[in-house]
Amino acid sequence: MGGLLAAAALGLTGASPARAVTIDAGDITRLPAGTNLAVLYLQHSSGDTLYADGDKVSGHARLSADVGIARGVHYTQIGEQVHALQFLQPFGRVTTGGDLSALKSANGIGDLILVDTIHLINDPEGKRAFVVSPWLWLPTGKYDRHRAINALGENRWKFALQVGYMTPIPGNMMLDVIGDVTVFGANGDFGPAGARLRQKPLYELQAHLRYPLSDTTYVSPAISYSWGGETEIDGVDQDDAQRRTKCLLSVGHFLTPSWQILGSAGTDLSVRNGVKEDVRINLRLLKIF
Fold first, then answer.
1. Does domain 2-288 have CATH number 2.40.128.130?
2. What is the pLDDT at residue 15?
3. 8 in helix, strand or coil?
4. Which of 118, 226, 257, 260 sits a CA distance of 20 to 30 A from 196?
């Protein structure tokens, strides 16, 4: 069981439960320069089945995460393009049990994330968008190498480049297609011995459909697939490359023209390495001003 615990701990280090690169339907909509958004996310996920190389190795590896994210967005005109300048500050708690109980629980402030979503086309009707978004994670979060897991602090720099396209499709629906790659800096203080952790690039593709139920409400199914991200410790490959498919169903509703609430529920469909999420619940509150 010690090997399973080590693999689970490494998996938590390699990927934050917040999964910041995964976005919601409509996030790449171009808004007028000068618009501001204040966003609060509350997320809960849990699972108890641990996989290694696609094989189930434990059905009692309980892992849950309760994460909040405070996000600010400011749209501004730079040259001919509109930029959505953003920050995200995660915070939360990871709880373990069963076969993973020896890892203990952890809580704290996560690494600060900075984003610039660059809108490369200007559709007067606001129904099409093509964006490029660089994401940067700063190693500002709570981290302790003597802990088997850290909630959200990774003690390393991360950078992701995301490309997204939004378009209307027949049936009065909207389609968002997003792809990204994340590259990782080294964590030179990993584990009690202060080992050097490196990670190969992690890739993700996601697609979101949006169907309006009314002028103020929509429903949105989504699916995503991520792969790659194998880690090595002091030059030794850990054979823990990711292949994860997940689905999500969201309902968004504008309470007023400037207040929106979004609720989502989802699950992992398949996992190659790590704990499979049985349930994910997301709640988002957004204010436009």
1. yes
2. 38
3. helix
4. 226
